[in-house]
Design brief:
Helix content: 40-55%
Strand order of the largest sheet: 2-1-3-4-5-6
Structural class: alpha/beta
Number of strands: 14
Oligomer: single chain
Largest sheet: 6 strands, parallel
Number of helices: 21
Strand content: 5-15%
């Protein structure tokens, strides 16, 4: 059996990091981990070909060789998946689809013509699906419970064009213990986190290492600290493994803000070479957080928690949302003030949307506030429900907040304050006897070229940029690299903020953005 696995293209967004990726010489941010996991569940004798449309286009021979086409997609990849299903059926192919989007909105992919639809997680469904494929019995295959991850295989990283990616990804757990109203994680993966054993995670890292990869690994957990005892167990295995292998990887992951009250956990994470954490802050307003059931953000002051995380060596990527119910005017300005007070350089700002099947979606549907939006009306500056305060007011605050937060002077100043507040690296403190990692000459040349491009771009945006560099070098020299990495994030944020603020303002005036 010849199988063509396709990852649809992702539209421009915060997570596409297009400008940053371009400067660094890669094609896209990270690979489709779901498809790699599916590939590992298929029979070894089958011939597999993975095409990530964020890396390259489909060729005629990709289609010609395929007996079966398998496509996975998130909600943002909706249009791409539907187009691929129709093209595959036009070419007479058997089509299997799965992932968060078809799980949440199965009717659309069925109407597009897919033959096999996998709803939910595939580990326990695979024997049933394979039997149906052999017998050519299409239909909907639904996972009725959340499978344990103890039998989840090592993903097929060998199918990737490794040089195209800025980072690779693994997953140590699924699910989140919290119940945020607007989040689809719990509807997709449940509130009881499930975990791979530490040795499973190390086996995945061994597989990546054996392919020659060195660099960043995104640990794609819904909440890396959802169960702290499991997190500690993993980190206590990962730390010596990393040391014994010359620390080939740096790590980034997603956590809840209560990490800021866990000094031991932060210390373990930095000892394992974690450098960045994505944190859902969402709103500075207690009434909003209460109404959205984001109670974990109310336990300790937000600014104190964010500063604690940063001070202990983990840079926060902060997520914020405008448009909640119970949100009073001026929310955009309050978000700006919190970001500046906490010295969070990298910010993702969103208009609230109600993902299908979330508690928010169900509530808004009962209240008659959901909008029936067609595909070409979907964008990051359009809300799919009637908000609780004037939409024009929300859009104006959204645009202004993006413009302010990503003003180059403010951004670079936050980056400077962020790294100055951070403790020196473990090596600089003498707290870790870490082996030096030798790099090929080509890697050194690549990194030097990236650094020069970043410096040239930053100096062009802010003539006084060099003064910030010198200040960091004098006062916290071991964090100079982190400062430049943050500047790299800025290369993505500057054009993205301009694009989104322009779209929002065009929508306010009734023009086509």
């Amino acid at each position: 059996m010849n199988v063509l696995l396709i990852n649809p293209a992702c539209p421009a967004s915060f997570w596409s990091m297009r400008e940053t990726i371009r400067i660094m010489g890669f094609k896209t941010l990270m690979p489709p981990l779901g498809l790699l996991t599916i590939a590992a569940l298929l029979p070894r004798e089958w011939e597999l070909r993975l095409v990530d449309l964020n890396v390259r286009r489909l060729r005629d021979d990709d289609w010609t060789r395929a007996d079966v086409v398998m496509i996975s997609a998130m909600l943002v990849q909706r249009d791409g998946m539907l187009a691929l299903i129709r093209e595959a059926k036009r070419r007479g192919k058997t089509v299997v689809v799965g992932g968060p989007y078809p799980t949440s909105v199965p009717s659309e992919v069925l109407d597009a013509g897919c033959d096999f639809l996998v709803k939910g997680e595939a580990e326990e469904l695979m024997p049933q699906l394979l039997a149906a494929l052999r017998d050519d019995r299409g239909g909907v295959f639904e996972c009725t419970r959340k499978p344990a991850l103890s039998e989840s295989p090592v993903p097929r990283f060998d199918l990737l064009e490794l040089g195209a990616y800025n980072s690779l990804s693994i997953q140590a757990s699924r699910g989140c213990p919290f119940e945020c109203e607007f989040c689809d994680v719990i509807s997709l993966y449940g509130r009881a986190p499930r975990y791979k054993q530490p040795q499973q995670v190390l086996a995945e890292l061994e597989a990546i290492l054996s392919l020659g990869w060195r660099g960043e690994i995104f640990v794609a957990d819904d909440n890396f600290i959802g169960n702290k005892s499991h997190t500690r167990a993993l980190l206590n295995e990962l730390i010596p493994w990393s040391r014994d292998h010359g620390e080939p990887f740096g790590y980034i992951t997603q956590t809840s803000i209560n990490l800021g009250q866990e000094p031991e956990l932060m210390d373990l994470m930095t000892a394992a070479n974690f450098g960045f954490v994505f944190v859902g802050v969402e709103s500075p307003d207690a009434a909003v957080l209460t109404q959205a059931h984001k109670h974990q953000n109310l336990i300790q002051p937000l600014v104190a928690s964010l500063r604690n995380i940063n001070r202990n060596g983990l840079t926060v990527i902060g997520s914020f949302i405008i448009g909640f119910d119970h949100e009073s005017p001026g929310a955009g300005g309050r978000i700006q003030a919190l970001v500046e007070a906490a010295d969070v350089p990298v910010v993702m700002l969103n208009l609230l949307r109600a993902p299908p099947n979330t508690a928010l979606w169900n509530r808004l549907r009962q209240e008659g506030r959901l909008r029936d939006m067609v595909s070409d009306e979907m964008s990051e500056t359009r809300m799919n429900f009637v908000p609780g305060r004037p939409e024009a007011e929300i859009l104006s605050e959204y645009a202004t907040a993006w413009e302010s937060l990503c003003d180059p002077r403010r951004f670079y100043e936050r980056a400077r304050r962020c790294v100055l507040a951070m403790r020196p690296t473990r090596r600089a403190l003498g707290a870790a006897d870490r082996p030096s990692v030798s790099k090929p000459r080509a890697r050194w040349k690549q990194e030097l070229a990236v650094l020069l491009r970043l410096i040239w771009s930053a100096q062009r945006r802010l003539p006084g940029f060099w003064r910030l560099v010198l200040d960091v070098y004098r006062r916290n020299p071991s964090r100079l690299v982190r400062f430049f990495v943050l500047c790299g994030y800025g290369e993505n944020l500057f054009p993205l903020s301009k694009q989104l603020s322009q779209q929002a303002r065009a929508q306010l005036t009734g023009r086509n953005p």
